[in-house]
Structures are given as C-alpha cells and as structure tokens.
Design brief:
Layout (H helix, E strand, L loop, with lengths): L1 H12 L12 H4 L5 E4 L5 H16 L3 E5 L18 H8 L22 H18 L4 H11 L3 E6 L23 H6 L3 E3 L2 E8 L5 E3 L2 H8 L7 H12 L11 E5 L9 H14 L4 E5 L6 H16 L3 E5 L15 E4 L2 H11 L7 H27 L3 H11 L8 H31 L5 H4 L7 H6 L6 H4 L2 H5 L18
Parallel strand pairs: 1-10, 2-3, 2-8, 3-4, 8-9, 9-10
Antiparallel strand pairs: 5-6, 5-7
Helix pairs in contact: 4-5, 5-8, 13-15
The structure holds zinc ion (ZN).
Length: about 500
C-alpha cells in the first residue's frame, strides 16, 4: 500500500541508531509521523521496533487508556449497526417507525418524534439485556491487571456497557455529594465518556435508578416509565395545595446521546485536568476506536500533548487503519490488530508485565532470601579453617594415619549437619514459595489486594519492578490471560 510505504520510508530516515540495540528510549521512539505497524508478518525492522516499544510499555508506570467499541467486540453484545443486529430485531417489532439505522437510536433528535420513542425503549432494553450477558474480554482484563499492578492512571471509555465494573474496576456513575470532587476522582478507574447503560435516569430531575424487572418489562413493551421521584414531588405539591407543575420525567438509560450534553461534563473536565497536571502520564494507549467523535479527538490531542512532553508514547491499537495526516505528531504508532490479539501478543513478548503484584513481591522476597543465603555461605566459608577440607582430601586419597582427630571430625560433621539443615530448610522454603506463586491468572488478580491508587501516584521515585528482578524472577511461571469464549460481535457505541 503506497501510503504505508511512504510513511515507513520517511520514518526509516529517522530511525534511532539505538534501535539496533533494542534499547531506544521513549523519546527516541516518538515519531513526527504516525507509523502503522502490523502485528504479524512484519519485516525485521518492524519486529525490532515492536520489541523496543514493548520494552518501553513494560517500563511505563502511569498509563492512560482510551477505549472504544473495538475492545468489546468479542464480549457478546450484538452489533447495533449491522443488519443482523439489534436494530433489525427492533424494527420487526415496530415496523411503522421510520428509523433508518441503529445509529439513530443514539441521537437526541429521536425524542422530538413521539413515534420513535417506543422503538428507542425496546432497543435500549434489548441492548441492556445483551450487555448483562456479556463477559469482559482479554482487553478488559488487561486494563484491570494494569490497575492491580498500580500502573493504570485512568481509563476513559466511549463504551456504555460497563464491563469493566465486573472486574473490580471503579466505574464512574453517580456523584457523591458528601465527598470532594478530587476524592471521588482519585478513586475512579474508568471514566464513562458516554454514560452508563446499566442505570436509568430521569429526563426531568436526572435522578438515577437501577434496572429492575418492572422497569425492564415497561421498556421492552416500548414504554419509558415515569420517574417515581417526580411523581412523589408532584403529589407533595398537591397535598400542600401548591400548583402542580405537571412535569413528570421519564426514565431512560443513563447514556449520553448525540447532540446532548454530558451531565457530568464539568466533573470529567476537572478530572482530566487533574490527570494532566498531577498524573504525569508516561504512556497513552488508544484501543479499539477509529477516533471519529469530535469530543474524543480533542481529548486525544490534549492527552497526547501531555504524554509527549514527558517523553512518553502514544499507541493506537485498532484493526481499522485511521487517516494519517490528522494524527501526525499526535499518535506515534498504530498497531493494526484486534485488541485481544494484541494483548495475547504482548503477554508472549513481555511476560513480566503480566505477573501479578503478588508474584512480583514473591520474586523480590526470593531474591532477598537467596542473597542472604549466599552471604551466610560466604561467611561460613571464612570461619571454616582452610586446612580441614585439605585434610579430608588427603585422607581419602593417601594416608589413613592423617585422618582428622575424633574431635575435629565431630566438629566438622556438626558444622556440615547445621549447614545442610539450614540449606535444606531454605530450599524447602523456596520450593514452598515457588508452589505458592504458581500461575495466577488475571481472573484471580481481582481477588488480590490491589495497590492503592494514591500509592502508585505518589511514589515518584518508584523504580521499575521488572528491572529489579533477576534469574529468580525468570523462573517464576507467568500467568496467561484466560481466553474468552468467542461470542457474537459487539459494538456499544
Ligand atoms: Zn424525575
């Protein structure tokens, strides 16, 4: 493809010489022009480049992520855009409605035409039911793993399925008036830029509600339920003899439709500013999105600027190629791949990154114990009279009369016994620890004590864990992300 070739040629001129050593720094890896990298069938130079990029990914400590529908593609939510998707099912139920595409179901203008509201209600109930059955993908688990490793600064998502929540990630939903904005933001892992399908909200008073059977039934039949809070306040006004305003809101999924302002817009803007000013992001992953929404494009430009100022990298992982010219100097690389496939590739390439925090701690402990053992052995050797081993050797090979005295033998035997006992104790302990650190999947990772966000953010002098690990670390088995059963295609938005 001509565009790829020209992009590659221009990049080759600037390839850092250190790439040949596979030790390019993040600053050296930054590109003035977006470079596309296929994950497989790569040339030697691309492979070298991917290795260098992986190395920097492994070293990164404050990772920002932006996700789109592509990360949920393997999760089991039907594609509402496809002809065989949800939209077609709903259209059969409401043949009279003049709706041309599933996309229209996400546009605020549908509320201007009463005939479209039942279609919207049925469509959203079906989408919610599908999302409830969906399972998080390997990409979702990777994000949760980065959080458990204390490397996730924040994940911004365009998806409304809330699949991250089932992995123990804190997902933005309602604001807590008893807590400060900064405190709420600090505890947040995933920011839902387009709202949350798993809640319903009132069109009038914005009160949010959980789905229940009654509400589901109402939406399925094409009716948006009335807001209980609005109904209650209207009754109160009537009892007090006040004029009834008559405005009772309707409940609809708490998602942001096209042409609508985000109810948490201010909160998200403030939070993003906090991430930029104090978060010090050093890597930005954009996953499973073609970056077509204007607000999201702006977000990417802002984050990219901050990440590049800290010599970090901006990497897009998406199957569909995005236009180069708009993203030169903003995105360094696009890895042309399905997100789950890339996560698998990354796990094979840098298994250290996929170790749980517990495995890392155990490896460090083993290393410490090993070093103490070696130190004690050195000290023991210093204390042992140098003549003793020679005596033994001579006695074995030549003279019976030069055998050590009974006292010497007893003392040597006792020292050897002590040493052996100590060594076998430590070996047993090492074996025990080894057994305890057997592959711990990322499924398990959620049950592990996760790092407190504050720790990960405040520890500015933190060194890269992987850099500390030695051969002991390498012996540890690395975990494998559990494969997800392949299910129907997903597109949330
Ligand atoms: Zn209401």
């Amino acid at each position: 493809m001509p565009s790829l070739i020209s992009s590659q040629e221009s990049f080759d001129e600037k390839l850092p010489s250190s790439l040949s050593r596979s030790s390019a720094t993040k600053a050296e890896l930054q590109t003035g022009k977006l470079r596309h990298l296929p994950l497989f069938e790569t040339c030697d130079q691309d492979e070298l480049l991917l290795k260098s990029i992986n190395k920097q990914i492994n070293r990164s400590r404050r990772i920002l992520i932006l996700t789109g529908a592509g990360i949920s593609c393997n999760a089991g939510i039907p594609d509402f855009r496809s002809s065989s998707g949800l939209y077609e099912l709903v259209k059969r139920q409401h043949p009279e409605a003049s709706i041309r595409s599933g996309q229209e179901m996400f546009d605020i203008s549908l509320f201007r035409e009463e005939a479209k509201i039942p279609v919207f209600a049925t469509f959203m109930e079906k989408l919610y039911s599908s999302a409830r059955l969906a399972q998080p993908t390997r990409t979702h688990r990777f994000i949760a793993h980065l959080k458990n490793r204390g490397k996730l600064l924040r994940c911004y998502t365009q998806n409304i399925d809330g699949l991250e929540e089932s992995l123990g990630l804190e997902v933005s939903s309602e604001r807590d008036s008893n807590s400060t904005m900064a405190n709420q933001w600090k505890n947040l892992d995933v920011v839902q830029l387009h709202g949350d399908l798993n809640k319903l909200s009132c069109t009038q008073c914005f009160e949010t509600y959980n789905w229940n059977r009654g509400l589901s039934r109402s939406l399925r039949s094409g009716q948006l339920p009335s807001c209980p809070r609005c109904q209650h306040s209207n009754r109160e006004r009537s009892l007090l003899g006040k004029r009834n305003t008559g405005s009772i809101g309707l409940l609809r999924p708490n998602i942001v439709l096209y042409g609508e302002n985000h109810p948490s817009c201010e909160f998200i803007t403030q939070g993003l500013n906090i991430d930029m000013a104090r978060g010090r992001p050093d890597l930005f992953f954009i996953m499973g999105t073609s970056l077509k929404v204007d607000g999201v494009k702006k977000l990417v430009r802002n984050i990219s600027k901050q990440v590049h100022e800290r010599n970090g990298l901006v990497i897009l992982i998406n199957k569909t190629k995005i236009g180069d010219c708009n993203w030169h100097g903003i995105i360094d690389y696009q890895i042309l791949s399905d997100c789950d496939t890339w996560v698998d590739y990354l796990q094979d390439s840098i298994p250290d990154l996929f170790k749980t925090q517990q495995q890392i701690e155990k490896a460090k402990q083993l290393k410490r114990e090993n070093s103490e053992l070696r130190k004690r052995q050195r000290e023991e050797r210093k204390l042992t009279p140098p003549s003793t081993p020679r005596k033994k050797k001579q006695s074995n090979s030549v003279k019976i009369e030069s055998l050590p005295s009974p006292e010497d033998t007893e003392s040597d035997a006792s020292a050897t016994r002590d040493h052996k006992a100590e060594t076998s104790n430590i070996i047993l302990k090492l074996a025990f620890e080894e057994a305890r650190t057997q592959p711990c999947s990322i499924l398990d990772a959620q049950s592990l004590p996760s790092l407190h966000r504050e720790d990960s953010l405040s520890n500015a002098t933190d060194t890269t864990i992987e850099d500390d690990l030695t051969e002991v670390d390498e012996e540890l088995p690395s975990s494998r992300l559990p494969a997800n059963p392949k299910q129907p295609t997903v597109v949330a938005r």
